[in-house]
Amino acid sequence: MGLTDVLVSSSAMISFLQLGMAAGARVFEYIALEPSIPERGGRIIPFHSLLGDVEFRNVHFSYPTRHGQVILRGFNLRIPPGRVCSTNKGFFLASC
Q: Domain coordinates of the chain in residue numbers?
C-alpha cells in the first residue's frame, strides 16, 4: 500500500469520523431540550367524571410530508365506558 492509498483511506475515515461527531452532537442537543409541555403537574381529571363513549367517525389522516400515503381513511371507532383499547401498527388490541 503506497502513500497515496494511505492518504485516500485516511481522508475517507476522517470524513466518516466528522459525520459521526456531528450526529453525536445532534443527539446531545436533543437530550438537552426542555419539553414545552410539563411532564408533571397540571390538572388531574377525576376518574368518576370520565363518563360516556369515546367515538371517532369517518376519520382521515395522512402525514403532510408523505403525500399520497394515507394512514387512516374513513376510520370509525366507538369505545364504550369502562373499556380499554390500544393500537399497535394499525391493529387494535385488547377488548375494544
A: 47-93
Question: DSSP 3-state assignment of 10?
Answer: helix
Instruction: Tell which residue, 22, 81, 78, has the closest CA to residue 55.
Output: 78
Q: pLDDT class for 1, splitting at 50, 70, 90?
A: low
Separation of alpha carbons 26 and 3, rounded Å? 35
Instruction: Give residue 59's pLDDT.
Output: 92
User: What length is written for the chain?
Assistant: 96
What pLDDT is recorded for position 68? 84
DSSP state of 47: G
3-state SS, residue 48: helix
| pTM recorded for the entire structure | 0.42
The candidate with the shortest Cα–Cα distance to 96, out of 79, 82, 81, is: 79
The C-alpha cell of 88 is what? 399497535
Q: Are the CB atoms for 20 and 39 separated by under 8 Å?
A: no
Quote the cell numbers at residue 50. Answer: 370520565
